[in-house]
From TrEMBL:
It comes from Kribbella soli. This is chitinase. It holds the Pfam family Glyco_hydro_18. Keywords: Carbohydrate metabolism, Chitin degradation, Hydrolase, Polysaccharide degradation, Signal. The keyword Hydrolase applies. The lineage of its organism: Bacteria, Bacillati, Actinomycetota, Actinomycetes, Propionibacteriales. GO terms for molecular function: chitin binding; endochitinase activity. SUPFAM superfamilies: (Trans)glycosidases (SSF51445), Chitinase insertion domain (SSF54556).
């Protein structure tokens, strides 16, 4: 059954071509604005930690999740890219504080830049995110027993929070991270091919989170513990004891995107707030379905942070009907880095080639040029998502990922100023 949110009944037309902009508004919200910064952002995308200052993101964020640390086959934490994390030197022009890294200094890389960022924004919280799509293969083993859980957590806190990085003096990166973000994709459900999964992952994940909470509470100061949570209600029930988890979590972030994508042949939305009329696919995937699922299973509203995308999914060879929506395609659309996926800032540069369409009732937009179709989360849709988060009194918004925004930070600006 399709449902309609009262907060979304705000438009007379179902689908309208538009180029409307979002007006500036004052902001007085206390809601969380959480953004993922990836350790690969500084390569081809050339989006550095210092760009978070330049485009205004750092001033609007309450928390950064730095992605990703990995877990090895023995359950120990390790850096997925030591060069990016703590070895790469930055020039004065590249650095947050405007000073070049010096030869022989103890800590370099993104971690040193994050350290400078915290000095500039003392209230900013920074967590290390563990796992992700390609780094979750061994979570099930790490969570398997009380002994494996205790050893895994000790390893991760030692590496990331106590800052004992390989080849560097003890505590070289201490104090940069104020929390742990668990991105196990997914307990008891298949994620990346080759991941270890077990039916008992559900209970073991609860126990793992509790072990993190216990060991974090033994450290001096306040430390966050968060988790990235799936959108699919079937995966929630298979892998998550929601009510118990949220007792130990500072907050949880929901997957508010990838509802559909170029792994399917039909074009569709990837981040609609509600299920659109005419969608030929089942079951319905939407933010409304996901948020309702977590609330019904005991998640507190104040700890539920809804994910939003700073990127698009695309198809090409699309049948020219219904403005391209729900139409067959010949495959993923060409893009800058990964076929079928494009950062907002790169796609915006091509906007003159497309018409923008919006489903104001279901809450999503897309681009179509007669043959190529892209999902489209622009400032108008960020405003809409912020209003939905506020209307439902949720804990805030989470961004994947910060490198997708423009040089003037127009997406995070629209999101931030419309949270209430």
């Amino acid at each position: 059954m399709r449902r309609r949110s009262v907060g979304l009944l705000m438009a007379a037309a179902m689908v309208v071509p538009t180029t409307a902009a979002v007006p500036a508004e004052a902001h007085g919200s206390t809601k969380r604005v959480v953004g993922y910064y990836t350790n690969w952002s500084g390569y081809g995308r050339n989006f550095l930690v210092s760009d978070l200052v330049k485009n205004g993101s750092a001033a609007r964020l309450t928390q950064i999740n730095y992605a990703f640390g990995f877990v090895d086959a023995q359950g120990n934490c390790l850096s997925s890219d030591p060069w990016a994390d703590y070895q790469r030197p930055f020039t004065a022009e590249q650095s947050v504080n405007g000073k070049a890294d010096e030869p022989g200094q103890v800590l370099n890389g993104n971690l040193n830049q994050l350290k400078q960022l915290k000095q500039k924004y003392p209230k900013l919280r920074i967590s290390i995110s563990l796992g992700g799509w390609t780094g979750s293969a061994h979570f099930s083993d790490a969570a398997l027993s009380p002994a494996s859980r205790a050893a895994h957590v000790k390893s991760c806190l030692d590496l990331w929070l106590k800052g004992n990085l390989p080849g560097l003096p003890a505590g070289a990166a201490k104090g940069i991270f104020t929390g742990i973000d668990l991105d196990w994709e997914w307990p008891a459900s298949e994620g990346n091919p080759g991941n270890v999964i077990r039916p008992e992952d559900k209970q073991n994940f609860t126990a793992l989170v509790h072990e993190y909470r216990k060991q974090l509470d033994r450290l001096p100061g306040r430390h966050d513990l968060t988790a990235f949570l799936p959108a699919n209600p079937a995966m929630i029930d298979r892998g998550f004891e929601v009510r118990q988890l949220f007792k130990d979590l500072t907050f949880g972030t929901t997957q508010g995107y990838d509802y559909h994508g170029p792994w399917e042949t039909l074009t569709n939305q990837q981040s609609a707030i509600d299920g659109p009329a005419g969608d030929p696919t089942t079951p319905e995937f939407s933010s409304q379905v996901t948020i309702d699922a977590y609330l019904a299973r005991g998640a507190p509203r104040s700890k539920l942070v809804m994910g939003v995308p700073f990127y698009s999914h695309g198809w090409t060879g699309v049948t020219n009907q219904n403005h391209g929506l729900f139409q067959p395609s010949t495959g993923p659309a060409p893009s800058t880095f990964d076929a079928g996926t494009e950062d907002y800032r790169y796609l915006k540069a091509q906007l003159a080639n497309y018409t923008v369409y919006r489903d104001n009732r279901a809450g999503f937009a897309w681009l179509f040029d007669g043959t190529t179709f892209w999902t489209w989360d622009d400032p108008v849709e960020m405003k809409r998502k912020a209003q939905y988060i506020s209307h439902r009194d949720l804990g805030g918004a989470m961004i994947w990922s910060l490198d997708g925004d423009t040089t003037n930070g127009e997406l995070i600006s629209a999101l931030h100023r419309n949270l209430r």
